[in-house]
Amino acid sequence: PPYHNEFVSFLGASYFRAVGKGAVYGTSARGLGIDTALPSGEIFPYFQEFWLQRPKPGARHMIIYALLNSPVITGAYRFTVIPGKSTRIRVRAVLYPRKKIKQLEIAPLSSMYWHGRGRGIRAGDWHPQQHDSSDLIMAARDGQWITRPLNNPLHIQVTRYLLNNPIGFGLFQQDRRFANYEGLIT
Questions:
Q1: Which run of H or of E encompasses 63?
Q2: Which residues of the chain have pLDDT under 50?
Q3: Of 105, 132, 150, which residue is a domain's last?
């Protein structure tokens, strides 16, 4: 209040994202990833139905239920959305496979990286950089922070990181200077 601004969005397939107070949307999460980067092709399950639980007066969170569906898996999701300066979403899911899945991804992040800082393919684009996120950051339980730059190679490339007991991961945009993107929203 008083503006009643948007703080969470569910859009296309199983993508969702949240935004904190006074911030703008960034990276999206997905309900599930299936067979990403495999020669057989990726399967995109989608949120087919949503149910909103009406918050009680004075509540500081909102609960959203969703049905995820695809030919190979279905799932029941419960999102607890806690809006604020830093909006948080707690996700619980129960999944029911219908067929054998080669590669299942829980909590995949989704971002766009075309080119920037000498990485990726420009393909005639005049912008100095084109991406939503520039780096992956991972936090290990032993206190170690690991960062890796994103890239856009000519061919599919999969990189795996083995972390024992990770405590977090995310994508972030390192460079925030307008002159390095020159992208106007019209």
A1: strand 62-69
A2: 186
A3: 105
